[in-house]
Design brief:
Layout (H helix, E strand, L loop, with lengths): L1 H44 L2 E2 L7 E2 L3 H9 L1 H34 L3 H29 L7 H8 L16 H11 L4 H11 L3 H9 L5 H12 L1 H16 L4 H6 L12 H11 L3 H25 L5
Antiparallel strand pairs: 1-2
Helix pairs in contact: 1-13, 3-6, 3-7, 3-10, 7-10, 10-13, 12-13
């Protein structure tokens, strides 16, 4: 009997000590299999010359040196395009998400739910609608909605090739990117604002807050910092990993004159079209480092200060 009791006690101590690891083990296993190993493999391949057929050959830092010194397309087209897209769609979309979330939070429950679904749906069905609605809106013939309106108003004489012209493609991409920027970060911010403690606003009025702008700066944003941080990180990740907008709109990869080429498109170009996997892995590693640095900066901005 005593042996059984000791056995049960030992088993209970083991369970109490390692139960959290047991519960975490499925997630840890999947995280290692689908995140750690692929990222490690990509970093390792970035130091090689690999065409998916022959055995990878070690080249050291050659891919990174080539990327930063010899790849004129990357330095003159891809990197500036990505930074411009990140500023307008990433930062602009993040600010727009907050403003829309704050505006919806002022409404009653039913209209708020309806408008939230309407605003969120483009981020889910964006790929389908890109090839239908926006291709029709900016079509380069007279049937295109924008061209039709401009021709009717006699502002132009011939249709503009919005999706094929390097002059207009990035502008169209930014418009489409902002339209589909109300994603999961927008929902998180909206949830934070809706569930914010109303007593904070009452206390702020007593302390001298007199208008809505002061409420946003001194009450709303400080009270939803975790949601703001999550939304910012999601905006960074979604913006830098975007590889579909320019390609779907223009119908080509690379995009015309590389006008809509982003870092993710550059990775696809070298990885799945040219099959230069080592070089594509080097670009992926640079993109990973860029996302990590920006995420750390955002984390410091929204860090809780005692």
């Amino acid at each position: 009997m005593r042996r059984k009791q000791k056995g049960f006690a030992a088993q209970r101590r083991f369970t109490d000590q390692y139960s959290h690891w047991i519960l975490l083990s499925p997630y840890v296993l999947l995280f290692v299999l689908f995140i750690i190993i692929p990222v490690g493999a990509a970093i390792g391949l970035s130091f090689t010359d690999f065409n998916t057929i022959a055995k990878p050959s070690f080249t050291g830092l050659a891919n990174y040196i080539n990327l930063l010194t010899n790849d004129a397309v990357f330095m003159q087209k891809v990197l500036p395009n990505t930074l411009m897209y990140a500023v307008f769609v990433g930062l602009g979309g993040y600010i727009l998400s907050f403003l829309m979330a704050w505006s919806l939070a002022q409404l009653t429950k039913r209209p708020r739910m309806l408008l939230t679904v309407i605003l969120y749906s483009p981020s889910v069905t964006g790929g389908v609608l890109l090839s239908t609605i926006w291709s029709f809106v900016f079509s380069g013939d007279k049937r295109g909605l924008v061209n039709y309106v401009l021709l009717k108003l006699e502002l132009i004489e011939t249709p503009i090739q919005f999706l094929k012209s390097p002059e207009y493609l990035m502008t169209v991409m930014i418009i489409v990117g902002l339209w589909s920027s109300m994603g999961i970060g927008f929902l998180a911010i909206l949830s934070g604002i809706v569930n914010a403690d109303t007593e904070l606003y009452e206390a702020a009025r007593i302390d001298g807050v007199r208008n809505r702008f002061q409420e946003i700066i001194y009450v709303t944003i400080p009270s939803i910092k975790p949601q703001m941080l999550f939304g910012a990180v999601m905006a960074i990740v979604n913006t830098f990993k975007d590889a579909g907008t320019g390609v779907l709109l223009s119908g080509a990869n690379p995009t015309p004159d590389y006008a809509g080429q982003l870092i993710a498109n550059h990775i696809d170009d070298y990885g799945f079209i040219r099959y230069e996997m080592g070089y594509a892995s080097a670009i992926s590693t640079v993109l990973l480092l860029l996302i990590y640095v920006l995420s750390r900066v955002v984390s410091r901005i929204f860090a809780e200060r005692e």
